Amino acid sequence: MPKHSRRYSAVAERVPEDSIYQPREAIDLLKELSTAKFDETVEVHLRTTADVRHAEQQVRGVTVLPHGLGKQVRVLVFANGEAADIARQAGADFVGDDDLIAQVESGWVEFDVGLAIPEIMSKIGRLGRVLGRRGLMPNPRTGTLVPARDLPRVIQESKAGRLEFRTDRTAIIHGQFGKSSFETDSLMDNLTVFMDSVMRERPEAVKGAFIKSAYVTSSMGPGISVDVATLQALKPE
């Protein structure tokens, strides 16, 4: 069994194991229990019924949180020529072609979002082993393989709160939706948009209930069980 700190144990005692909270109640409690000395990241974890052994049941998507993630997002763009100039002018943190590809291939991954223009995709295919497991590999399905004309919009969205999500090998979807310092209304807005995006990506092959359990937590806090039916029904106004 992992050994928890006294601080964690003290706050965990305030979350009964058999308690299930409504989303707003869970967020209020989460904020109350975020007692670390830094602004903790707020996360949601969804256990789905998808059988991820089948490609058609894997969930993957992207959303833009209305109140952002509360952190600086470093954007990398694989591009050359005019597209590279557009990316730099749009505020990308790292832009390049062969030199940048070689740097990433050697193991450097000090960025949060990876974008690429289609013309350079054949060059970065070999980076899948470095970027794939971290969710940083440009992919047309998640809108990170971007024509040059769309780079300013996507870079702006990435820095504002663009969030990718997908099922992991245990069929769980993990997502961040802000910081513990955010107001409850802002966190509810972000969570609502995130859940609406997840439900839109529900695979047709999944029958019956899609989400089995859901928890919200902060970086250093305990998991708080959230009512699944209410969570799945959240819709942006």
UniProtKB/TrEMBL annotation:
Keyword terms of this UniProt record: Ribonucleoprotein, Ribosomal protein, RNA-binding, rRNA-binding
Region forming the signal peptide: none
Gene3D superfamilies xrefs: 3.30.190.20, 3.40.50.790
An example molecular function term from Gene Ontology annotations: rRNA binding
InterPro entries found in the cross-reference section: Ribosom_uL1_bac-type (IPR005878), Ribosomal_uL1 (IPR002143), Ribosomal_uL1-like (IPR023674), Ribosomal_uL1/biogenesis (IPR028364), Ribosomal_uL1_3-a/b-sand (IPR016095), Ribosomal_uL1_CS (IPR023673)
Entry GO CC: large ribosomal subunit
Lineage: superkingdom: Eukaryota
Quaternary context: Part of the 50S ribosomal subunit.
Annotated NCBIfam families: rplA_bact
Protein family membership: Belongs to the universal ribosomal protein uL1 family.
Designated name of the protein: Ribosomal protein
The organism's taxonomic lineage, starting at the top: Eukaryota, Metazoa, Porifera, Demospongiae, Heteroscleromorpha
